[in-house]
Each structure stands twice: as C-alpha cells, then as structure tokens.
Amino acid sequence: FYPTHGDLHELKMVVYTPSLGSDFTYWTLTHNDRRYITVGKNKVLAIQGYVDMAIGDAPFDRLPALGGQNMMRGYFEGRYRDAAYLMGQVEYRQFLGGRWGYVVFAAVGDVAGDLTKFRAGEFKFAAGGGIRFLFNKEENVNIRVDFGVGRNTSGVYFGMEEAF
Fold first, then answer.
1. Nearest-angstrom CA–CA distance, 7 and 42
2. Cα–Cα distance between 73 and 147 in angstroms, integer?
C-alpha cells in the first residue's frame, strides 16, 4: 500500500474480438514502470512511466484517457482521449511524524492518434500536492487528499492508498 523501495514492471496486452464475445475488434497494450527510492528517514521518491495504446477499432470509451486521481492529477479523466497515451510523473512523499505526511508531484503527458503523432510542444503538464493521514499503521494504508493543477484546469482528489 505504501512502497518505499523497489521497482514494478508491468506489460499487459488484452485482445477484443467477436470470436471472444466482443462487438469490436481491437487490442490494448499497456506498459507501466515504477520505481520507489528511499531518500531519507520517512522520505520516498516515486517515479512512474506509462504507455497505453488501443490498436484497431476501439470504441470511444475504451480509448486511453488522460487525467484522473492516479495519473495527471489536475485533469478530469477522459477530457483528452485518443489511441495512444504517454505519461510520466514523479512524487516526493514525506511523513512528518505521528500519522501525518505530505506529497508534492509533477507530471507530463498527452494523447495522440498513434506513437508517431506526439509533438513535444503539445504535451500537457500537471503539478500539485497533498496531505496524508496514516489510517492503518500495520498495513501502511493512507487516506489522501490531493490538489492538482493543469493547463486551465484543476482537481481535488480523495482516496485510500497512494496514487501509484
């Protein structure tokens, strides 16, 4: 629930086809990499790189969506959708003592028709911070409140566990 060191490497492919019961023919490919680095007592640097693609005849609501409470906080999830999504984010986490802590984060990402259509000047940026309350000491489960700001947008997020 609260990683302090190590890596996560995830690669997922899902196939949708009428022969498997789908009304559409497409597949999705998701690559999620995370690294957690302890940088001092009760201090963690979390880094994430993320790629999500829909290839074929994907319905609109299944296209990769930028934003939400876990990635690109500050953007409403689904405001930007397309066949390919690239995102990177970093978060600094620190406990202050007792059950309270805080985070600061920044992210950059965008969606495009395919991986060749991304343009450096069009990427969106988000940044923000949040407070943490250690709800369950044994399992290191936090209640979180985050505030993120993007280009002409912002959002407040409530949740259990960390964003990533």
1. 18
2. 8
pTM of the model: 0.93
Query: For residue range 51-72, what is the model confidence (pLDDT) as tens digits?
Result: 999 999 999 999 999 999 999 9
Annotate the chain with DSSP letters as a single string.
----SEEEEEEEEEEE-GGGT-SS-EEEEEEEEEEEEEEETTEEEEEEEEEEEEEES--GGGS-EE-SSSSSTTS-TTSEE-SEEEEEEEEEEEEEETTEEEEEEEEEEEEESSGGG--GGG-EEEEEEEEEEEEETTTTEEEEEEEEEETTEEEEEEEES---
- State how far the Cα of 55 lies from the Cα of 57, in Å rounded to an integer: 7
Cβ–Cβ under 8 Å, residues 71 and 109: yes
Q: Are 6 and 41 in contact (CB under 8 A)?
A: no
DSSP 158: E
Residues 10-34, buried b or exposed e (16+ Cβ, 10 A)? eeeeeebeeeeeeeeebebebebeb
Find, among 65, 78, 71, 2, the residue nearest to 33 by Cα.
Answer: 71
**Burial of residue 139 (number of CB atoms within 10 Å: 0-12, 13-18, 19+):** exposed
